[in-house]
């Protein structure tokens, strides 16, 4: 980790990883004078509390720097929001100096180099890997009183588009595990590739290591918070973490030897 881009890695003796690359809201102090958005404007498009959901007893990669500084789920071209069309129509930076852009681009390369090293080490140690790539998404775009369209907005959207076809049975196994659980005593609506299909983190990992593992890009609808005020619903957040804990227990029973042998 550098002083410019903040994240932490916690490794354990596990083939499983949880990533929360949009959890953070930190902006490096040297960049704040160029930032045009206030904290609330940024917070709405960040994925707050996903780092809490990702606090699982497995390997962890949690980013505390805001995606508005550097978005690790985008290609390098779009990872720095220099134009409104890259950031939901928001104007993010006021004349961000070229040397800061270069520093951010170097950070981008360094972080992905570290991710590559970590996944390779996991493969060396266990023969396979599974990444839980944890995100959230807004479902009340027009205002806080908007009725949620549940048909168009799954409670959990599972992005899998970049995974090797050999892992489709594992994806189904994971979905079944979620379906067999409840969330606050209610059935869970999990669907595949409806709202989101997986971002650049998934593409990067799968292109390099797709024969040895896969990425489950998990987008939670922001039912666990007030997406307009940012107020967290702690019971809901902890319930989602428990759902993933239970799914991990089930995944440990999956026969990875058939797929990796």
UniProtKB/TrEMBL annotation:
Gene3D superfamilies (alphabetical): Zn-dependent exopeptidases
InterPro entries in alphabetical order: N-FG_amidohydro
Superkingdom of the source species: Bacteria
Official protein name in the record: N-formylglutamate amidohydrolase
């Amino acid at each position: 980790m550098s002083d410019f881009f903040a994240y932490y890695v916690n490794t354990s003796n596990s083939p499983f990883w949880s990533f929360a690359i949009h959890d953070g809201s930190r902006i490096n102090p040297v960049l704040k004078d160029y930032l045009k958005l206030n904290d609330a404007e940024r917070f709405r498009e960040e994925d707050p509390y996903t780092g809490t959901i990702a606090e699982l007893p497995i390997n962890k990669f949690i980013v505390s720097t805001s995606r508005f500084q550097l978005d690790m789920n985008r290609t390098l071209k779009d990872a720095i929001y220099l134009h409104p069309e890259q950031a939901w129509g928001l104007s993010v930076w006021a004349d961000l100096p070229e040397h800061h852009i270069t520093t951010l681009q170097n950070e981008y390369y360094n972080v992905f180099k570290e991710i590559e090293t970590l996944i390779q080490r996991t493969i060396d140690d266990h023969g396979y890997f599974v990444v839980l790539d944890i995100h959230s998404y807004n479902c009340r775009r027009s205002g806080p009183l908007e009725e949620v369209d549940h048909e168009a907005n799954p409670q959990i959207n599972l992005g899998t588009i970049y995974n090797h076809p050999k892992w489709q049975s594992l994806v189904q196994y994971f979905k079944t595990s979620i379906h067999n659980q409840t969330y606050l005593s209610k059935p869970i609506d999990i669907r595949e590739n409806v709202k989101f299909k997986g971002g650049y983190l998934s593409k990067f990992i799968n292109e390099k290591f797709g024969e040895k593992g896969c990425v489950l890009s998990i987008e939670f609808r922001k039912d666990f918070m007030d997406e307009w005020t940012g107020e967290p619903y702690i019971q809901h957040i902890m319930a989602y973490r428990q759902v993933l804990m239970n799914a991990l227990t089930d995944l440990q029973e999956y026969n990875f030897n058939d797929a990796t042998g």
